[in-house]
Amino acid sequence: MKHLLSLLVLTFLIQSCMKGESADLVIHNAQIHTMDEDNTIYEAIAIKDGKIIEVGPERQIINKYSAEETIDAGSKSIYPGFIDAHGHILSYARQKLSINLVGCKSYDEMLVRIEMYQSRHNRKFIIGRGWNQNLWKKSDGMPTNEKLNELFPDIPVCLFRIDGHALLANDYLIKKSKVVEKFNADAELNSGGYLILDSLQQPTGVFIDNAMNPILDILPDFPLEELKAAILEVQEELFQYGITGVHEAGVQFEELEMLEELMETGEFPLNLYAMLLPTEDNIEFARENGIYQKDNLTVRSFKVVGDGALGSRGAFLKHSYSDLHDHKGYLTTSLERMKNIAKLCEEVNYQMNTHAIGDSTNRIMLELYQNIYEVKPDHRWRIEHAQIVDPIDFKLFAAAGVFPSVQPTHATSDQIWAVSRLGLGRMKGAYAYRSLLNQFGMIAIGTDFPVENIDPFLTIHAAVNRQNSEGVPSGGFQMEESITLEQCLRGMTTWAAFAAFQENELGTLEKGKDATLLILDSPLKINGAFKNNFAYMTFINGKKVYSVE
Ligand SMILES: [Zn+2]
Predict the structure, then answer these.
(1) For residue 492, how far is its CA from the centre of ligand 1 (angstroms)?
(2) What is the mean pLDDT, run by run of 10 residues, along the chain of 549 residues?
């Protein structure tokens, strides 16, 4: 009896001690979608030193922890922070500093925007981004630079198409960059790009893929402070949407240094999984550092641009374009070079992430990745976009363990014209996210901002309802390739984390993982229409980075 009594006293003591367990933050009265294997929903979460120390039922957490800060979530919903598995923070920042040509409904509207911008900023080199001739009312293909030459005869003008795979230059810039001469003299540029000529065999001003390179070489960057401020603006936008991590699809060494500076001052807490472009500096960095992890930056992958875009007919197809005979597109990086990069990745234990749009490029990469699979089955090497896949090649994703990384808004944006490029027959393997998911068992999902809208809720709508923001088409585009809301959420959380080797820290709300999450007013639901949505609060490592209030 005496023993029993002391045991009871002891138990009581332990319990009361536990009640006082300390936490930095407790969020309770919530619907916490943990996204664990069983999709458990809990009510409360305790956070300490940036990590989740427990997630569980309301009373269990409330009774156990005394926290420095407590948030009553008022029954709101909590999800793991969204990860954009393919985005371009730097391009978006530069787009914010350039003339915004997104959504122009005509060539003339584009000119008006340029003149207005130039009258305010008086730049010495005019740079615009975002035109898309498919939106122009009287468009009969790519634009020409005549009107641009009339308006700007003695200052360089460079206007990027929305996909970044084509640009329109005025004659002044064409002469200054010697782009035509350089293009004609360089076999590598020649095989991975083209320039459009008029009936007199003169350049129209449009340069596509590698043909842009001589112009890119002389393109000035924006002043560092302006660029940094624009990057922080992009970050703020991401946090508003509950996006806490981005897989940056292609960075240069100098850009990485700039981002690290922003991280060191604490201004840039976003989780950044940076894919290096295979430049000499970057290759040297990879050889010296191997897998590089510092604060919220991880570098362990190369981004290779395999081919061009479908819109500008640069995507490399097995058979000719339906609307341009005897033209199949091209590889923008030679096969030889891709093999070398694959070898390098294997040596330094990096992941190879290749942009592949056309069915030919996809096939080539699937075969190339087969080699790494044989020595390292869990390589997680990715194909970015995996946009057009010959149905007979789908099985190679499973056979070579290739991770598909897709951006569902491309399907709903391209739906209007993709069939004219491909013909109906090839549409079967295009934007086929369900088929890809069935093969590999996971897909990483991103927005590809600024090529597409940065809004992840639009991505969810496109993936599940297969419609654009206007609800077009009414029944959904190729609905047999739609995925479920849960699958889409996993693509933006759990699977995206796995695609970056970060599944032990991110992707679910479980004990031991980063306290990186978003609070939404109401649980995510799928109804017919797209609804613009924002986070109520966003946290990274237990720190609030965004709040509506
Ligand atoms: Zn991209």
Answers:
(1) 16
(2) 54 52 98 97 98 98 97 98 98 94 94 95 94 80 93 97 94 96 87 90 95 95 95 98 98 92 97 97 96 96 96 95 95 96 98 98 98 96 98 97 98 94 96 98 97 96 96 95 98 98 98 98 85 94 95
Ligand 1: distance of its center to the CA of 405 in Å? 10
Between the CA of 199 and the centroid of ligand 1 the distance, in Å, is: 33
Cα 92 to middle of ligand 1, angstroms: 11
- For position 517, what pLDDT does the model report? 98
Q: How far is the CA of 8 from the centre of ligand 1 (A)?
A: 62
Give the distance (Å) from ligand 1 centre to CA of residue 124: 28
How far, in Å, is the centroid of ligand 1 from the Cα of 277? 12
Quickly tell me which residue has 């005979």 as its tokens. 325
Residues 176 and 251 in one domain: no
> Is 96 contained in some domain?
no
Considering the domain architecture, whether residues 272 and 402 belong to the same structural domain is answered as: yes
The whole domain housing 453 covers 83-87+222-502
> Do 200 and 161 share a domain, yes or no?
yes
Residue 146 sits in a domain whose CATH number is 3.10.310.70
Is residue 95 included in any domain, yes or no? no
- Region label for 152, one of left (φ > 0), alpha (ψ between -120 and 50) or beta (otherwise): beta
Q: How far does the centroid of ligand 1 lie from the alpha carbon of residue 383, in Å?
A: 11
The CATH number assigned to the domain holding 57 equals 2.30.40.10
Residue 276 falls within a domain, yes or no? yes
State residue 526's pLDDT score. 84
Which parts of 326-464 are beta strand (E)? 351-356, 382-385, 403-406, 444-445
Find out whether 52 and 512 touch, Cβ atoms under 8 Å: yes
Structure tokens of 194? Answer: 């083209």
Contact at 8 Å (CB) between 403 and 442? yes
